[in-house]
Amino acid sequence: MHGYEEHTDRIRKRLRRVEGQIRGVAQMVDDDRYCIEILTQIAAATKALQAVALELLGDHLSHCVADAIEAGGPDADAKIAEATEAIARLVRS
User: Fold this and answer.
1) pTM score
2) What domains appear along the chain, each with residue ranges and CATH number?
3) How far apart, in Å, are the Cα atoms of 71 and each of 31, 65, 68?
4) By Cβ atoms counted within 10 A, which residue in 30, 44, 59, 66 is the most buried?
5) 3-state secondary structure of 81
6) Using one digit for the tens of pLDDT, what is the confidence trace for 37-83?
7) Alpha-carbon distance 33 to 6, whole Å?
8) Helix (H) or strand (E) holding 93
């Protein structure tokens, strides 16, 4: 069971909204809209996607990582390293 399982519907809904935003950006390009308007919409879509990523990260930390730490052993160290790498990727993006 993944940590986000309780929130799957909400996450899917948010991702569909981001998908719609991206389609809207593509349509703006097709319509030859003003650059700044397109950049504004890209920034909004990026923020929305980052919000989904943070929600998934929080669920991962509170479920998967917490459970591994409670169990102890090498799996705990591996989950902590995995979470650290995921956070680093998010920070770089």
Assistant:
1) 0.83
2) 5-92 (1.20.58.1000)
3) 55, 10, 5
4) 59
5) helix
6) 999 999 999 999 999 999 999 999 999 999 999 999 999 999 999 99
7) 40
8) none
For residue 82, give Cα distances in angstroms to 5, 20, 23, 50, 92.
19, 31, 32, 18, 16
Amino acid at 41: Q
Distance CA 77, CA 55 (A): 22
Interatomic CA distance for residues 73 and 2, integer angstroms? 20
H-run or E-run covering 31: none
Q: Residue 76: how many CA atoms within 13 Å on its side-chain side?
A: 8
Length, in residues, of the chain: 93
- The torsion angles phi and psi of 72, rounded to 5 degrees, stand at 75, -175
